[in-house]
Design goal:
alpha/beta, D-Maltodextrin-Binding Protein, domain 2, globular
């Protein structure tokens, strides 16, 4: 009997359209679904515990046998709203950053931007603290995911890293990619995920309604899922991913910058 693969996803708001069809029985999942944070999914994928996983894009480039399943990604073009640096000082004066430990791509993104813009990289410390505590021992906080919606924009200077990245590169930013291990074949699972993505995109308004009963918040969630986050790894997204990985490799943040695809595209 064929082995059932283990496939990992995070359940931040931006991935909920990908999970919606599986969770509501619209598409059968021919795999074991594992939910975890982006960074832990990367570790579990690299260890071989997971057969496929939606992982931070920088972690693809740190995993020698990883190949990208091109049917799905999480990307943005310009302002993204869920990758933020907040501070009480000017961007160029930031010397230390407390960074959400759940993400690694955003840290690499920040390092690249600082190196290109200011010729230096601030001290970055991973933390598990809530956003309102990050500035106790650091000049700035880096927050990702749903926590970014709770940053007090009235009290702090807030920079959207997606917006800064677009100003720097003029390219989309690919935050996460679905990866498998080279040589493995999980065609049934890949087809189901592609089908679930299409179903989830058709139900984004429903996803937004399930998140909140507040009409203003619902509109904000719906706008985020439709205007901020993109799920297709098209030509522009591949170009943006290649540029990001090349920039990361130049800084010694990863060992590879090639794009290898499942099942050998």
């Amino acid at each position: 009997m064929p082995r059932v693969p283990k496939i990992g996803f995070h359940d931040f708001l931006n991935s909920k359209p990908l999970l919606h069809a599986f969770r509501h029985g619209l598409v059968a999942a021919p795999f074991e679904l594992v939910i975890d944070t982006p960074s832990k999914l990367a570790d579990r994928f690299q260890s071989g515990e997971l057969d496929m996983a939606l992982i931070p894009s920088i972690e693809y480039a740190r995993t020698r046998d990883a190949v990208i399943v091109p049917d799905v990604c999480i990307a943005s073009l310009g302002k993204v709203e869920t990758v933020l640096v907040y501070t009480d000082r000017a961007l160029e004066d930031i010397e230390s950053v407390a960074a959400d430990a759940r993400s690694r791509t955003s840290v690499a993104m920040l390092e690249i931007l600082f190196r290109h813009k200011f010729g230096r990289i601030p001290t970055i410390t991973p933390v598990d603290e809530a956003p309102n505590l990050m500035l106790r021992d650091a000049d700035a906080g880096l927050v990702i995911g749903d926590a970014a919606f709770h940053v007090d924009r009235a009290r702090h200077i807030v920079h959207d890293l997606g917006e800064l990245w677009y100003q720097h590169s003029g390219r989309p930013f690919v935050h996460a990619v679905l990866c498998a291990h080279k040589g493995d074949r999980w065609d049934g699972a890949v087809a189901a995920i592609a089908e679930a993505k299409q179903a989830g995109l058709r139900h984004r308004e429903l996803v937004a309604r399930q998140e909140t009963r507040n009409p203003d918040e619902m509109r904000r969630v719906y706008e985020y899922l439709t205007a901020r986050i993109f799920y297709d790894l098209g030509e522009a997204e591949r170009d943006g991913l290649a540029y990001f990985l090349s920039s990361a490799r130049e800084l010694g943040l990863c060992e590879r910058d090639d794009l290898a695809f499942y099942p050998g595209e």
